[in-house]
Hints:
The chain is mainly α and 433 residues long.
Amino acid sequence: MIDRYTTVRMRNIWSMKNRWNLFLDVELAYLEALEEDKIAPQGQAKKIKDLVTIDPDRIAALEQTLRHDVIAFLTHLEEQAGEATRFLHYGLTSSDVLDTVFALQLKQATAFILEEMLNLIDALDELAQRHKKTPIAGRTHGMHAEATSFGLVVLSWRESVIRSHNRLIAAANDIATGKLSGAVGNLAFGDPQREKRVLERLGLRPEPVASQIVARDRHAALFVSMAMAGSVLDNIATNIRHLQRTEVGEVYEPFGSGQRGSSAMPHKKNPVLCENVTGQARLLRSYALAALENVPLWHERDISHSSVERVIGPDATSALEFACKRLCGVIKGLTVNEDAMAKNLEHSGGIIHSEGVLLALVRSGMRRQDAYALVQRCALKAMSGEGSFIENLKSDADIKLRLSDEEIDQCFSIKEHLRWTDDLYARRSKITA
Length: 433
């Protein structure tokens, strides 16, 4: 991710400084457990903590020669703490520390994403409450369908974000899994109770039966849930973009007083914020595919997943946090043009009420397919410029046998479309804690 699009807190999580400090936390937590189990001399972990200052540049320089990041890290500690490091990394393999640290970083990062999602859910709820009874043309296939309320449209967006929030919580809980079980996961030089004890101190649980690594289906589930969340945000952003089109003009994303929309056309107010969200969603979907490719590995482990995760870990979490923040700002600053919504409702000449007329004919005793053909005949004439829909209905000889003008007029009430709005709002989902 480009730095200017990534929050400071997310950059800090994925910084080399934080990574190596987490390495130190894991190694010292395990060394303390070795001291408790009378394997390592007492006080070694404290000595290392007092003597060591992490220097990412020094570790990077050592890695240039050693060609192994974990050995470079351990060498860096030994340079500073000497004999006190003798039992450091005792019975562990590199992936014990790498995977446990990656779990800690993902746990930290998803906590920030979930926080931004909650902000977005709140913003959507507030917008939905404001426009609970604001009529808008519902659209299917991009065409006028029936009337609904803009509040219900927004409330459906909110529901999808809540589902994304809940999926991400479940995936984040699953990824809070580490391992300290050695080179092939069989604890040959470790102890299951010690592993459990140390990981609990770090806020993680042990992989029940590990190989050299934590199984990558856990990671894939997290990245897929982030991709799904990105697609949900993309859906909202895409629909706002459609509603902002010149010929629709029903909503507008925020546009600053000094903002410019085009280098060539001074009149332009483009939905660039929503387009940002769409772009990030595309990246998130590609990261999910990369995470799925990481699941099949050779036997107890190969290293093909490692370079992938160094990219998708920081990039995916940064992209989703950014997309949530960006869309939340759009929702909070959204301009809603109720006059345009009302005008567009009338644009199709009342054909949005066709189902109401159809059902009135059915209630009058007519077979549904026969009624459908009559209403369609009147609607298609209106759409081709032959009279208005309501006039065509009232002048149709077959319909006049079934419905009075007053009964037809009753079919053209917007209130009928919004009569269950309060009940639908009462059904809106609660947020999982």
